Fold each of these.
Amino acid sequence: MLKYEKMVLLSDMDGTLLDTNGEISPMNRQAINDFVSQGGRFGVATGRSPLNAKPYLHGVVINIPCIFYNGCALYDFADEKFLELYKLPGEKLTSYLKSSMSEFENVIIHVYSIDTNYIITPETSIDEDTVSNHQPYELCKLDDLADEEWIKILCSGKKEDLLAMENKLKEFGLQEEINWVFSSDKYLEFLPLHATKGSMLSRLRDMVGAEYKIYAVGDYYNDMEMLAAADVGIATANAPVGVKEAADVITVSNNESAVADVIYNTIAE
C-alpha cells in the first residue's frame, strides 16, 4: 500500500498554499508531488474561480475535483467541467447593489459568472492593486448583467464599509436568501444560500467514498466550515485566533511552506 493511499488533502490558496507574494514555494510543490506519487489526492478549496486560479497552480499536480468560489462550485480540472454549481438570486440582489454602490463609492464590487469576473464599480474608483489579484475581469454596468447567471459577489474595501454593507442586507430582507462570509479583512463575499467550503467538502466526500480520510488546511473564517467538515482540520500559524481554536492541528505559516509541513509532519505521522 502506498504511503498516502486513501488520503485527500484540500488546501486553501491565498494565505495558505500561496505565500504573501502570491507564489507557491518549491518546498510546497515538491511535497505535493511526493504526496500524489505516493497515492494521495490533492486539490484546492478557494474563493477564486477556476480561470483565475489556474495560472497560480501551474506545475502543481491536482488529481481530485476542487472547490471554487468559496463553496459555490466543485470543478474537475481533468475534464474541465463543473460537477456542482450553485447560483445567486441575481434579480433579488440588484436593488441592494444599486443602493450599496451609491452609498459606498469606494467599495469595489465584483459579480462572478461562470466565465467572467465583472466589475460593476466605475473605473475611476477602481484600485488596480486590488483587481490585479482577480484577473481576468471585465468592466460593465450592473444593468448589463440582467441575463447573466451570478455565482458570487465579491466586495473589496475598508472593513467599516464592508460591515455596513453586511448590516444593510437586513434592509433588503436578504438574510434568508443568501450566505455571506468575510474571506479577509478587506473582502466580503455574497454566496448562494448554504454554499460554504464545508458543504462542498461533504459533497466531495460523497463522490470519493467514506474510505478516504480528508485533511483540509486554511487560514481564515471562510475556511472554518471546511475545517469542521474534514476528518482533520488544520489552520496555518497566520490564521486568526478563532480559526486556530476551531482547528484540530496548527501548522506553520503560509510563508513557511505550510502545505509541505502538513504533508510531512501531520499526514505522514
Amino acid sequence: MTNSASEPTALPGVLIGHDTAGRRPTGVTVVLLPEGTTAGVDVRGAAPGTRETDLLDPVNTVQEVHAIALCGGSAFGLDAAGGVVRWLEGQGRGIEVGSVRVPLVPAAVIFDLGVGDSMIRPDADSGVRACAAAVPVVQAVEGNVGAGAGASVGKLLGPDRAMRGGVGIATLHAQGLTMSAVVVVNAVGDVVDPDTGSLLAGARVSPDSLELAGAVDEVLAGRFGDGPQAATNTTIGVVITDARLTKTQASRLAQVAHDGLARTIRPVHTPMDGDTLFAAATGTADPEVQDALAPERLAVLLSVMAAEVTAQAVVRAIRAAQGLRLEDLWLPAWQDTHPG
C-alpha cells in the first residue's frame, strides 16, 4: 500500500500492474497512464538500458505517452514493453497515425540476471500480463514483485555480500496536488534512512553475516572486495503527478526526482548503475488548484514533492523486501535484521 503526508489520494486513470516470473525472481511492473499524459526522463547512471526515451525530449514532436514499463532481465527484458504496446493497442489506445493507433511506451530495465537462471527473462507476454493485472495506485503491491522480484542492493563489495532490493510505491498529497512514485531499487550502493542516516540495507561484512559493512567507508579506505561488474545494477522508476505540465516541465521533474535517490542510496549514479527516472503528468487535478499557485511556486512545490516521494518509495522497497536463499546465493532483507 502507499503512504502520504495526509491520506492516500488516488491518481485518476493511473494503474500499476506487476507480472512476476514463477521460475526465477524477475518480472515486469507497468504504469498505465490516462489519455493526454505528458512525460519526461532523466538518466543519471552510466550504464542504462532504455527504450523510447528519445521521444520524451522536449524538442521532439510527440506530446503524450500511454504507459511506462519497468522491467527485469537486463536488455532482454525490454521485450516486455512490446507486450505493453500490444495490450494497449487491443484497448484502442495510442496516437492516431492514419488508420492506425500507435501506443507509446518508454521503458527501462534493471540487471537481475545474477539471481537464478539467467536464461529466464521477462518477455512480451509478461508485459501483457502486467497490464491485465493493473490496479489503482493505492492497491498496488510492493516488495519482491514485478520488476523488483530479482532486485538487490549493496553490491559494491561483491554480489555475495548484497541484500534484497525490491519495488516501492509512495504517494504524497500537498496543496491540492498528488504525486506518486514507483521505484525499483537495484542499486550497487547501500540504502539509508534519509531521516536518520542509518543504514537499512547494503553490503555486508561477509557472505554469511547480517552485519552491514558501510560500503562508502570501505571504498574510501581502499577496500573494494570483489566489486560489481559494470551494468549489473540500476535503480529505475517513475514519479506521477496530477498536475498539468509540459514535456519540458516533466523532464525537469524527472531531474529533481533523482535527489530522492541521492538522499537514500550511497553511492548513487555510479558507472555500474544505469539509474533512470521518468516523470509523468496526467493533468487531472482541479485546474483551479493549480492555477491558484504562481508558476514559480508550483515548480518549487512539485520539485520538493518529487524528491520526497522518491526517497519514501526507496525506503518502502527495502522494508517490504523479503530474504531469498538460492543454491549459490543468499540475499537477506531488512526484515531479517529487524525480526518482528
Amino acid sequence: MADGDQDNQAAGAEVSYLGIADWIHRVTEPAIRGAMRALQLPQGSRGLDVGCGIGTHTMWLAEAISPGGHVTGVDISRNYLAEAEKRAGERGLGERVSFRYGDMSALPFDDDVFDWVWNVDILYIGPKETGMPAEDPVPVLNELARVAKPGATIAVLFWSSQKLLPGYPLLEARLNATYAANFIYRDDTKPESHFLRCLGWLQAAGFEDPQARTFVAEVQPPLDDATRKGLAATFQMFWENAQPEASASDWAEFQRLCQPDSPDFILNLPDYYAFVTYTLFYARVPAK
C-alpha cells in the first residue's frame, strides 16, 4: 500500500471513529468507570492517558481524581487531540486536563513524572504491516514505566467480550469467527500475543504484583436513543466487513436483525439484553 493510500485510510478511520465514538462510549461507560474506581486513583494525583483519542476517558479520569489533580492525554492523531481540547473546554475542564501529540513508543515526557498511566484498546500486539502498534509489548510497557514514578500504577484495558444478539447464539458465534471480527489477528499470530496474555507482558516488563479484573457494561430496555445508536454502531464495528466470509443466509439474518430500519431490528425486542466486558490488567512500577 502506498503512503498516500495509508494516509487516506487513516483519515477515513478517524472520520468514522469521530462519528460513532460518543455512542460507543455510552455503551461501554459503566465498565470503564468501574475499572477507574477499582484502581483507586489518588485524589489530586497526576496521571497520563495514553491513546486518549477524543479525550472522553481523560475527562472521566479527571473526575475520578477530583478534587484537584491533572490528567494529560497523548495521542498520535492531531484531529482527535483538537476535538479533545474543544470538548474539555466546553465542559470547563481546561485546567484539569491537557493534551499532547506523541507516540506511546516514545512518549514526549521526562522520566518519573506521573503517579499512574492508563491506556485502553491500544496495546494490541502483532506484525506492523497489519497496523499493530508493536510486535513486542515489553518495550512499550517499559516506556510507560519510564514516565511514571516508582510505585506508580500502570493500567492496560481491553474490550474483551460481548454478547449482543440474544436468542441468536449460533449466528453471533459465526459472525465473531470471521477474520473481519478478529482483524488484529492472523493464523500465524503467536498465542502469547493475545491481549488476554497481558499478565505475562507485565511480568516480563518487571512490574510488581500484576493483576487482572473484568468489568461488565449491561444494557436492557428501556433503551434511550444514544444507547440504541451505540449498540447499532457496535454491530457495524464488529461485523459490517464480514459479508465476504459469511454465508448468504447469515448475512441476510445479520441485516434483518442489526439494521435500524429493519422491521425486525433486534433492539426493538421488549426483552432485549446484552453486555460487553472490559478486562483491566494492572501492576506497579518497581522502585529504582
